[in-house]
């Protein structure tokens, strides 16, 4: 045998702490056909700084679709199918890098996915620039060993092969045609060299994760061994591996044969279906006394169809796949939304999800039983949703299993007429929906019975669009697209349906009121600024109060939301007003000349607007203007102190009752903003930030200049006699 090794790699990605599926880093690989060995090299590393601590990296594997994971232990939506993913943990302790190997023998060919993430996020809101987070990187590499010219086992033709040693098993493959009901594998002879006892193990199928359904057959001696497989995967190559369980020096010669039993489908042709569809749309033709789309058949042909119907293995219903958008597909039945279901044979619907871009959403199947069409009240319609091959004998004991796949059961009856199934991230394959009428007393009771079931099937990026408290996000890894739900207001879960930690409506209203009404603390600062003739500063505070109020009213995660304009515009104006307020306050305290102050006001505002456009959440967008303004203020105060030969400001009352309280409030506000805010306490810690900053501004604003008189509102509003001075100049005309 000739083996070829191949190597595949993807670029490293920075890992994130887990809070929703978007934090997991996804890697997409394609395993070629005839692969007999797959080896993953998982490389995890961390930085070398003191902020890097011991960390555990969780890696999930799945065949055919992204892994369905639940690190937070939240609830999935009702009627959703969840099977635990296969995962391993990699620990980064004293070593900076951890390399782990994962070997898979006879892996299934096709798409394989790896998802990696760090433990649950702490929920602390970190200000960008205050701290340097540790960097954790992850990179998987894939090595495959592929067999060239793998022997092909033809149906019904015996093949003789030799297993050289236990270290080199024999690999053959057989193609399973469409409409195969049963595959029968038989090991007719097993002869060992050196007259030793023959012992071999036959493994049928490939490994798929998280679940593997390989069938194992152990044969000893020269005795025929056989194994039957119901509903093997249609139109796929099936790998068969034969291992020698004897000694290393003994060769084993085996003779094997595979045979198939076909399942004859009974369905009308596509031409007749489209013809009936067109007739149903245009209405009955003139002179036709029958219903639209009906066809009158002669008595002989009708009896012949009835006899053929008894020989059918299944009844196939034509389904049209209609692509709506990215990871969005609707399946439309040509013969109408209702399909007839019988007890003699199953009704089969084909749901194609084999484009390679359909596995990033959710497959939803809805069944609705028409009670008036059910002739037997105690009958039940059993449905099975399966991949690769259909369930051809759905009954209560088989539990919807095929040869290499565990299907998903559904049932409707007169007592329960509706059923729903949600398959999260369905694997890339041909999917089938099988329906059959089941009677409690056997098939003889309902041989002539029939039921009408309305089938609605579609592929959606996020089930129910993540609900009221979630946002459906389309994620991308290179050219592969998949969807995930980002929850808010304390809701969690795959589709944001877990309300264990959800905020009540009253709590949401309270959070909105705290974050918006706390901005009214700028009113004292505005009054003080107007009283001190700082009209420009008062205008800036009014601007900040307005946009901060409505930004937080629009930024709420729940139902208490009010957006007067675009969210991005409100956020930008809020950030701009906050930084400019600090800028003008410190410059006002410096007591520089008016013309210089207003020039600095304008230049600083323009620079702040530019920097916020580059990075709104960077700490230096706020700290940079603050530090520069503090340098100007300290320089101005030193200049005034040297000029007057005394400390500036000179009044101890100004220091004790205004400056020190204002500086203390400002430092407390910065500490709360930078180190205490989390996702859970945000609504009251950020409200405290609003109150403290606005209060500190009211204390820090300097008093008005001595030569300026206070606003004389009483003199302007009081009606009384006044002695007026005539300042008019006499103009004399010279003639």
TrEMBL record:
InterPro entries: EGF (IPR000742), NGX6/PGAP6/MYMK (IPR021910)
Bilayer topology: Multi-pass membrane protein
EGF-like domain ranges (all copies): 485-496
Similarity remark: Belongs to the TMEM8 family.
Any one GO CC term of the record: plasma membrane
Pfam families: DUF3522
Superkingdom of origin organism: Eukaryota
PANTHER family: FIVE-SPAN TRANSMEMBRANE PROTEIN M83, POST-GPI ATTACHMENT TO PROTEINS FACTOR 6
This protein's encoding gene: Tmem8a
Region (Disordered): 278-304
Parts of the chain that traverse the membrane: 510-533, 595-614, 620-639, 655-676, 682-701
Keyword annotations from UniProtKB, A to Z: Cell membrane, Membrane, Transmembrane, Transmembrane helix
Subcellular location: Cell membrane
UniProt name for this protein: TMM8A factor
Main location class: membrane
PROSITE patterns (alphabetical): EGF_1 (PS00022), EGF_2 (PS01186)
């Amino acid at each position: 045998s000739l083996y070829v090794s191949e190597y595949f790699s993807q670029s490293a990605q920075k890992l994130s702490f887990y809070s929703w599926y978007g934090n997991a880093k996804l890697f997409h690989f394609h395993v070629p056909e005839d692969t007999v060995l797959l080896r993953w090299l998982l490389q995890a590393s961390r930085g070398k700084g003191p902020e890097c601590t011991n960390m555990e990296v969780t890696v999930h594997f799945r065949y055919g679709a992204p892994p369905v994971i639940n690190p937070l232990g939240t609830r999935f939506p009702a009627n959703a199918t969840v099977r635990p993913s296969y995962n391993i943990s990699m620990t980064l302790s004293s070593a900076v890098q951890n390399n782990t190997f994962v070997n898979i023998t006879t892996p299934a060919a096709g798409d394989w996915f790896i998802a990696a993430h760090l433990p649950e996020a702490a929920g602390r809101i970190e200000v960008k620039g205050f701290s340097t987070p540790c960097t954790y990187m992850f990179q998987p590499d894939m090595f495959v060993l592929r067999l060239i010219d793998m022997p092909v086992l033809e149906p019904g033709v015996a093949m003789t092969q030799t297993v050289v040693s236990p270290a080199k098993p024999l690999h053959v493959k057989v193609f399973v045609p469409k409409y195969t009901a049963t595959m029968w594998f038989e090991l007719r002879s097993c002869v060992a060299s050196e007259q030793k006892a023959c012992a071999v193990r036959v493994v049928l199928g490939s490994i798929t994760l998280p679940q593997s359904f390989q069938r194992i057959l152990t044969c000893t001696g020269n005795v025929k061994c056989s194994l039957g497989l119901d509903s093997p995967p249609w139109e796929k190559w099936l790998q068969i591996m034969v291992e020698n369980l004897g000694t290393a020096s003994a060769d084993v010669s085996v003779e094997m044969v595979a045979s198939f039993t076909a399942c004859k489908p009974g369905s009308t042709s596509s031409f007749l279906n489209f013809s009936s569809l067109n007739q149903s749309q245009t209405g009955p033709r003139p002179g036709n006394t029958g219903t639209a789309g009906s066809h009158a058949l002669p008595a002989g042909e009708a009896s012949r169809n009835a006899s053929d119907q008894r020989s059918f293995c299944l009844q196939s219903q034509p389904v049209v796949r209609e692509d709506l958008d990215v990871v969005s597909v609707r399946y439309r039945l040509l013969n109408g939304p209702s399909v007839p279901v019988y007890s003699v044979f199953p009704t089969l619907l084909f749901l194609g999800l084999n484009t390679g871009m359909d596995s990033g959403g959710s497959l939803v199947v809805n069944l609705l039983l028409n009670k008036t069409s059910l002739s037997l009240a105690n009958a039940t319609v059993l449905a099975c949703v399966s991949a690769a091959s259909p369930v051809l004998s759905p009954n209560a004991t088989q539990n919807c299993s095929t040869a290499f796949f565990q299907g998903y059961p559904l049932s409707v009856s007169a007592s329960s007429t509706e059923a729903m199934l949600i398959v999260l991230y369905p694997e890339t394959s041909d999917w089938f929906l099988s329906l059959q009428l089941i009677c409690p007393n056997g098939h003889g009771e309902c041989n002539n019975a029939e039921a009408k079931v309305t089938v609605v099937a579609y592929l959606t990026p996020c089930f129910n669009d993540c609900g009221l408290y979630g946002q459906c996000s389309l994620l991308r890894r290179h050219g592969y697209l998949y969807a995930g739900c980002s929850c808010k207001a304390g809701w969690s879960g795959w589709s944001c349906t877990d309300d264990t930690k959800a905020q009540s409506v009253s709590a949401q209203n309270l959070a909105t009121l705290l974050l918006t009404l706390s901005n009214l603390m700028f009113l004292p600062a505005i009054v003080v600024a107007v009283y001190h003739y700082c009209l420009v500063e008062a205008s800036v505070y009014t601007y900040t109060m307005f946009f901060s109020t409505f930004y937080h009213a629009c930024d709420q995660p729940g139902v208490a939301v009010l957006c007067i304009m675009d969210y991005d515009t409100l956020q930008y104006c809020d950030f701009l007003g906050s930084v400019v307020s600090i800028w003008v306050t410190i410059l006002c305290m410096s007591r520089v000349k008016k013309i210089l102050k207003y020039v600095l006001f304008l230049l600083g505002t323009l620079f702040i607007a530019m920097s916020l456009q580059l990075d709104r959440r960077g700490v230096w967008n706020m700290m940079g203007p603050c530090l520069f303004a503090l340098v100007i203020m300290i320089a101005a105060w030193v200049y005034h102190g040297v000029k007057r030969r005394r400390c500036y400001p000179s009044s101890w009352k100004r220091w004790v009752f205004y400056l020190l309280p204002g500086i203390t409030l400002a430092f407390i506000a910065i500490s709360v903003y930078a180190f205490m805010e989390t996702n859970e306490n945000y609504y009251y810690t950020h409200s405290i930030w609003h109150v403290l900053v606005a209060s500190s501004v009211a204390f820090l604003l300097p008093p008005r200049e001595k030569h300026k008189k206070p606003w004389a509102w009483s003199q302007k509003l009081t009606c009384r006699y006044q002695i007026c001075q005539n300042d008019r100049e006499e103009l004399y005309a010279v003639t």
